[in-house]
Structures are given as C-alpha cells and as structure tokens.
Amino acid sequence: MAQDGYTGAETTGFVSPASDHLEGPIDLSEVLDLRRPNRYPVRVLGEALIDRGILPGDVLIADAAADPRPGAVAIVMLHGEVLVAQLAHKRGQWWLRPGRRDQPAVPVSEDMTLWAVVAALVRERV
Fold it and tell me: Where are the transmembrane segments (predicted)?
C-alpha cells in the first residue's frame, strides 16, 4: 500500500499534539542545494577522516565554488588521486590535516588542486 506521506492520522493510541507541526516531504536536493551547478555528491570510500566522524559509505556534498576556510573538510586532487582532508591555515600557508592524528599535516603544494570544500554530509545508515 503506497502512501504519499505521513500525516499522523495513521497512528495507534493517542494523537500527538505535534501533528499540527508536521512538515511535508523533505526534498534533500533542495535542502542540500544540489541544483547549484557547483554542488556534487561524492561517496567516501576510505577511512581517512573516520576520527572526524566521516565514515566509509557516507556521501559528502562538495561545493566547488566555496572558499577554503580553516577547519573545513576539503577534497583535493593530487596526480589524479582524490584526497579528503581537513584544512588548516598557519603562517600564511594552507595545510592538509589527515583525519588520523598519527599522520603529519602536509602543506598544500602546486601539485595539488583544491577541488571543493565539503558543505554537508549524508549518511544512509545510522
């Protein structure tokens, strides 16, 4: 039996007083602003930022037009390889901080292209 959306009328027991405040269906494309030409969903394959709470299988919403900022997660291209790291800015230079604390920060070099800054994260399974 297909339903268009949850209205609260199908509950058993008592009617929730919050039913007056139910919002309609959530359009993730709108919430995540995916209609903008510079926004891209990117699936995480590795565990590079697991300490930051970004897990394999998560979907990052990358914004290729966003300005870099310290603490943001960035997607960087290096010799055709895609890297995901946290940005840091010190002494006038951008650095990539891996998610694992046992790895040192790496200065952003001319070989690297800062492709996008992560604007959001989508997790399919909780």
Answer: none
From first to last of the 126 residues of the chain, give the pLDDT tens digit: 455 555 555 656 666 666 666 778 888 889 898 989 999 999 998 888 888 899 999 999 999 999 999 999 999 998 888 889 999 999 899 999 877 777 888 888 888 999 999 999 999 888
Expressed as residue numbers, the domain containing 68 is: 43-122
- pTM given for the model: 0.74
Q: What is the CATH number of the domain that holds 66?
A: 2.10.109.10
Residue 14 lies in a domain: no
